[in-house]
Amino acid sequence: MAYYEAICFWLSLVIYALSAGGYIYALVFRNEKVVPKLLVLIGIGLLVHTGAVAARYFAQGHFPWSTDYENGLMGGWFIIASTLFVAWRQKSLRVFAVATVPTTMLIMGYGVMRNPSLAPMAATLKSFWLAIHVFFAWLSFGAYALAMAAGVIYLLKERAAKERGQAPAEPVPDRFADLSPERLDDLMFKYLVFGFITNAIMIAAGSIWAKDLWGAYWSWDPVETWSLISWLMYGAAIHLRVTMGWRGTRFSWLMIAALLTVIINFFGVSILMKSSVHVFKMS
Amino acid sequence: MLKSTLKYLGSLRCTIWLLVALIGVLSIGFFLPQRSLVGKVAYQKWQQASPVLAQIDRALDLTAIFTAPVTLVLWGFFFLNLLLVMKQRIPLVLAKVNVDPEKALERHGKAPFSYTVELSEAALEGVPAALAAQGYQVHGDAGRFFAIKNRRSPLATLVFHLSFFLLLVGALILFYSRFTGFVDVAEHEPFLGELSRYNASPELPRSGGGPPEVKFLLESVRPEVSQGVATGIKIVLKDEAGVQHEVDINQPYKTGYASVLFNDLGISPLFVLQDAAGKEIDGAYVKLDVLKGKRDHFRMQGYEVAAWYYPDHVVVDGKDSSRSDEFKNPAFHLEVTREGRPVASGTVHPGEAVLLDNGLRLGFMEQNFWVRLLVTKEYGREFIYAGFVLALIALVWRLVYYRREITGVVRESASGKVLELGARGDFYQALAKDEFDRTVAALCGAHR
Ligand code: HEM
């Protein structure tokens, strides 16, 4: 890690940790008034996070898009950026950070435990199609993370509603009142659709890249296979919703489970790196 | 029995199970070592270490899961199911696209979202035009109309799913027409596409035919390594017409349906054997596989020469070694024997020589490179690209430009004329309602 990168990286992680703590407080003590303030904190975190990306860019001379650490760094950036983007467009979606901030911390934490050292860009990664591939991978990752967040909020809301049903007569304010379950349900699908389309572009661009790098569009290497698996998984989710009427609780759990396949895919890229650097058997 | 099986195979429930089964089977490829990826030696080791799993593997071919019978059968069912479902869907989709406005108006009262708005006579007259301005196709007149946006969007379901068949056809053509072969070519060496020049056993097209007609002269090779990472390799080829082509990682030389890709790099030094008077007895560019500390050997005039290579040579504690993987100061350590008897040894840089017996000298004159090129040829890419493009267009068409319908009927009420609107959209509920609320608000706002 470059000097300023390390400072910014750890600082952003601390800021995210503080805001995650704030969210836990908001949830446990049912004080949702602090949520807007936490969003400002996350905004500051993203600025510092951007600083880490910039410092790494200048230290290496290329975008961070190859190792586990870089995937965590950039994937996390996209998740937080999309969280802030939707919160900016619609205030009621601020609560999505409850799920996306801890997810970001996990993937950044995992990444930094792996290989944060600086490296020049491997020849295998200098490709227009790879740039398209990676960019759309991040976009779809961000969107799938939002779908997961909408699912988490849906479940929390549902639980609160159940508790309310059993509670004594005194009125309990509705959880995340300005987000109706129907809206959350739609939002899950909307983000899923955005993620699914960008994921499809990512797979197509990746296979065109593979043709130029390995001489074949598809070689069933682990990363290709896994990206197909997670795309099929989201395809199955769309089917379950459109043709089998899955909604609400079941669909929320599906969005949470499906994100796991994407996270595995994301970090699987390191395996791709190993085998693609292997092509140039010198390093 | 057959009828019910066919019925199940044409159902969407079967689609879900097939997708789940495919996900499951493909996941095996991630958790179990695959023969094509780990190589034969590692595979045999695994077989010895896990005899029970190996036995299961022999029965089910799980370590070649992507071409295993179970996977192929699943893909077969997948496409069969797709075909059957799409066949059922075509008339439904066409009926949906060619929707009859009258029939749509019959469902007016059953729309999920309904609105009643009071507008002036003039404003009522302007509603169809206002909806048209928002991208709706309006049928009927201001008193009774059916407005629809993205009418043809359901067609995209067919386009998207049928694009899988394009990918399938493309994949089959690729599979049957594919040639792959590795060829080692040194700098300044020509390659005329002869089958005999390919290493070991090139994979010939399954549909018959020979290697592609790829002819070139390898002009130069310049590898670039920085901090131990391969950052590029510049290979220049000259084709028959004398045109130069640059090959790099990610940048093959493409001619027609054939591609020439860089695969591996080796050292091809010029070694010359001279007598005591300096006369050249023999000399050759030898292709050596010596990178990463590997030892290789060659023969010249009865001498057996073992060679070690140091791209960035230094001597540390009296021992040869390399400071980095960069080709900054190349040197060879040579050990020469004749009929098993050691003759000489030494470390030489370009221009230097090892003194042998009988006053002979083995000189390292020049360092060149050789490259292992992967030559491929396959047809069918048009289908693959068309499949990708159609699938993406169809996804956006169906899921982003989804269909919205509004029916409108003017009724008399105590206070005058009111417009009753019924609205429905594909896929969404709350978000569709927001959109219709805005549309209706705009209709009212524009005519107040
Ligand atoms: C045997 C295979 C398949 C069959 C028979 C099938 C069938 C269908 C049908 C009939 C619909 C329309 C549902 C409706 O509008 O009421 C649909 C929707 C959809 N399917 Fe599939 N499907 C298959 C495989 C896949 C796969 C592999 C994917 C992607 C991973 C996929 C993605 C979608 C998407 C995104 C939609 C929603 C958009 C639309 O209606 O077109 N499908 N599928």
TrEMBL record, chain A:
UniProt membrane topology term: Multi-pass membrane protein
First-listed, main subcellular location of the protein, grouped into a coarse class: membrane
TM stretches of this protein: 6-26, 38-59, 71-88, 95-113, 128-156, 191-210, 225-244, 251-273
GO cellular component terms, A-Z: plasma membrane
Compartments reported by the entry: Membrane
Entry GO MF terms: heme binding
The keyword Lyase belongs to this UniProt entry's keyword annotation: no
Record domain Cytochrome c assembly protein: where: 76-273
One of the GO BP terms on file: cytochrome complex assembly
InterPro entries, per database record: Cyt_c_assembly (IPR002541), Cyt_c_biogenesis_CcsA/CcmC (IPR045062)
Keywords attached to this entry: Cytochrome c-type biogenesis, Membrane, Transmembrane, Transmembrane helix
Protein name: C-type cytochrome biogenesis protein CcsB
Organism: Geomonas paludis
Automatic annotation (TrEMBL), chain B:
The ResB-like domain, residue ranges: 12-436
Source organism of the structure: Geomonas paludis
Name of the protein described by the UniProt record: ResB-like domain-containing protein
PANTHER family named among the record's database cross-references: CYTOCHROME C BIOGENESIS PROTEIN CCS1, CHLOROPLASTIC
Membrane topology summary: Multi-pass membrane protein
InterPro entries to which the protein is assigned, alphabetical: Cyt_c_bgen_Ccs1/CcsB/ResB, ResB-like_domain
One GO process term, biological-process aspect: cytochrome complex assembly
Primary residence: membrane
Places the protein is found: Membrane
Keywords: Cytochrome c-type biogenesis, Membrane, Transmembrane, Transmembrane helix
TM annotation in the entry: 12-32, 62-86, 155-176, 383-401
Entry annotated with the keyword Transmembrane: yes
A GO cellular component entry from the record: membrane
